[in-house]
Design goal:
The protein contains three helices and two strands. The chain has helices at residues 2-13, 53-63, 81-90; strands at 19-32, 35-47. It has a two-stranded antiparallel ribbon with strand order 1-2.
Length: 92
């Protein structure tokens, strides 16, 4: 969880994210380099603008201990307009 908190603080401080939710206690099952793996992880839900995705991903890759951190973007189909405006105002 220390890595998750560090990443969350870094992204918000650099204005690459307006908010980062850290969800602890995730158990991931996956295949890596030919082996079945199971690890406890924290899931980060990062609220940012689509035009900042590249910079945000670069910061995560640089500061994450994994060789291949999970970084995926999901489209926002809509939302509470004042909240979406806050995200835009809180990021660079």
């Amino acid at each position: 969880m220390r890595t998750a908190g560090k990443l969350a603080r870094l992204l918000v401080a650099r204005k690459l994210a307006a908010c980062v939710n850290c969800v602890p206690g995730i158990v991931s099952h996956y295949a890596w380099k030919g082996k079945a793996c199971r690890d406890r992880e924290a899931l980060l839900l990062i609220k940012t603008r689509s035009d900042l995705l590249g910079q945000m991903a670069a910061a995560v890759k640089k500061n994450h201990p994994y060789e291949l951190p999970e970084i995926i973007a999901l489209p926002v189909a809509g939302g509470y307009a004042p909240y979406l405006a806050w995200i835009a105002q809180s990021t660079r």
